Amino acid sequence: MKLRTLSLCGFATLAIALSANAQKPNEPSKSFYRNMHRQEITIPQIMGYNVYKADLHTHTIYSDGAVTPEFRVKEAWRDGLDIIAITDHIEYRRIEREMLHYMGDHIKDEYRNLPKGVNTNLQGDAADERGILSNLNIGHERAVDINKLYGLLVVRGVEITRNDGHFNAIFTTDNNRIYHPDIKTSIGNAIKQGAFVFQNHPKLDKSTASTMTPLAEQLHGEGLVKGIELCNGPVMWSRLISYCLDNGYTPIANSDVHDTSEYRFYPEHNDGCYRNMTLVLADKCNEKSIKEAIFAGRTIAYHNNKLIGKEEYLADLFRASVTLHYVGLNKKEEVVVMLTNRSSLPYTVKYGNKQVIADAMKTVQFALPKGSKSVDFTITNLICGNGKRPTVTMQVPRKE
Ligand SMILES: [Zn+2]
Ligand SMILES: [Zn+2]
Q1: pLDDT of residue 35
Q2: Beta pairing partners, 157
């Protein structure tokens, strides 16, 4: 109300007050010196393993992303991740193509007839034998260099990008030795380096049993591709959850961020959601331990406060996150309890025909039917198959 009645004279007074406090020209503001803060995401141990938060699919200016590898590392640290892979497209390098085209006559003689580079857009052009002139390791190397100040685990990787499908190879050792005109040979080259390969953002093809493309289904069947990105950015492939889990493929959720995670995720889900993460159940956050866990399928895909994984992992996650306390009897002699959630993940819990939300880091109070000594909770935001949710039985401890 006061603001509405503020006169022009009031504004003039305000302006004078502000100019008195104004910083001198060229002097950085106080906020310039403020340290960047990391968001901490607390997840308890599951089945004796630590839970590490990974994004295994991100892009930078070295393919078609809008930011540098250095920015990606700082952003991942700020977002609370433990592990990041810079997985630029091998065969789609938009900025290189534009730069070479712009440089025209200034480029070396041997490249003068290649003003758009070599194999820079295999989604538009046919793959050929000339290979690739760029250093495809540079994104990872720059990320590793800045990461000395941030302490994440940076995993080397690439996105193998053709019209028949996109596949990420992570834990590669030399990204310059993967390209081949034939996609299957490219994937084989990554596997020879010890890489783990997963299907990215699966295309729908109703002609196959899995509803993935024939190529994807064939590569999975031959054991070359061992994981499925069930969640990519804002999209979740619900129809593939049972196929992934029942056939032993590793469930994965990634951002596939090209611009910034803030731009991609937070405006639309500004209600306590994090960016997509692959939660990795491992002993340690080093490459050996994380690689072993991903090959063994010990992951949970996190997307928009939904978690997808094997039933035993999800049930144990819930058990480890919450405690149930008896409080007393209400007037109807119903058993009043409190459920405390000490994790950063919220749970939507059904019991009988009722539902409660166990928000992250909060306690919720509610009543169970008269005489309850235990309760079966079905957690509806935990997904262990198409339409399948885990049920956890908890005792209601009475006070002496
Ligand atoms: Zn892709
Ligand atoms: Zn991508």
Answers
A1: 76
A2: 170
Cβ neighbourhood burial of 90 (10 Å; 0-12, 13-18, 19+): buried
- How many Å lie between the centroid of ligand 2 and the Cα of residue 45? 30
CA of 36 to the centre of ligand 2 (A): 27
Task: Report domain extents, the chain.
Answer: 35-309, 323-395
Nearest ligand to the C-alpha of residue 123?
A: 1
Q: What's residue 330's pLDDT?
A: 96
Task: Please tell me the distance between residue 64's alpha carbon and the centre of ligand 2 in angstroms.
Answer: 9
For the domain spanning 35-309, the CATH number is 3.20.20.140
N-term to C-term CA, the chain: 56
Reading across the β-sheet that carries 374-379, which strands appear in turn? 354-358, 347-351, 374-379, 391-395
- Give the C-alpha separation, 252 to 361, whole Å: 25
pLDDT digits over 95-149, tens only? Answer: 777 766 666 666 666 666 666 677 777 777 778 788 787 889 999 999 999 999 9
Protein residues within 5 Å, CB atom, of ion ligand 2: 159, 256
| Structure-block tokens of residue 143 | 């990320």
